[in-house]
Write a structure and sequence with these properties.
Length: 162
């Protein structure tokens, strides 16, 4: 075997190995074998949450989102797989939050005080939807306009004499 054929075979092997690794990473082949238990939460607006998104408790990663689908009322149903040793009280809440201003979205669990814990497959009753940055900015602008409309050019309010 000459040097050129050997280089071609080695290159083909490397490409095949990379394709195999990418397929395992993004194809979800190992997702079903992740240990833990599943909990479900339904949101009206779950923008930015996809399979693989982080699930955190007190800022510590305790699981991942493993599935998402729409129910018959067009709500986003998110399935989270949590580590086996992480109990979640029955009155806990699931909130969609963002890392910083424009960071990745994740689900934050806020533990409740109930003495009974959610069982595998159960649904969380308390949720808070994803906050849309554009909606938040529009709200801030609307409040600023309302404030300005209630003030005269000198800085006082229009309906109170100074």
């Amino acid at each position: 075997m000459n040097s050129r054929n050997r280089d071609t075979l080695i290159g083909a092997g490397v490409v095949l190995l990379l394709v195999l690794l990418l397929g395992l990473s993004y194809g979800g082949a190992g997702r079903a074998s992740v240990p833990g238990y599943d909990l479900v939460a339904s949101f009206n607006h779950a923008a930015g949450i996809t399979a693989g998104s982080d699930v955190r408790l007190s800022g510590v990663s305790v699981g991942k989102v493993v599935a998402e689908h729409l129910d018959d009322r067009y709500r986003a149903v998110i399935t989270m797989r949590l580590a086996p040793g992480v109990p979640v009280p029955a009155d806990s809440a699931a909130l969609i939050q963002t890392d910083g201003l424009l960071g990745a979205k994740y689900i934050a669990l806020q533990p409740g005080a109930d003495e009974t814990n959610l069982k595998p497959g159960e649904a969380m009753r308390y949720v808070q939807d994803s906050m849309n940055l554009q909606d938040l900015l529009e709200l801030i602008v609307a409040q600023a306009k309302a404030r300005r409309a209630g003030q005269d050019p000198k800085g006082g309010t229009a309906d109170k004499p100074q």
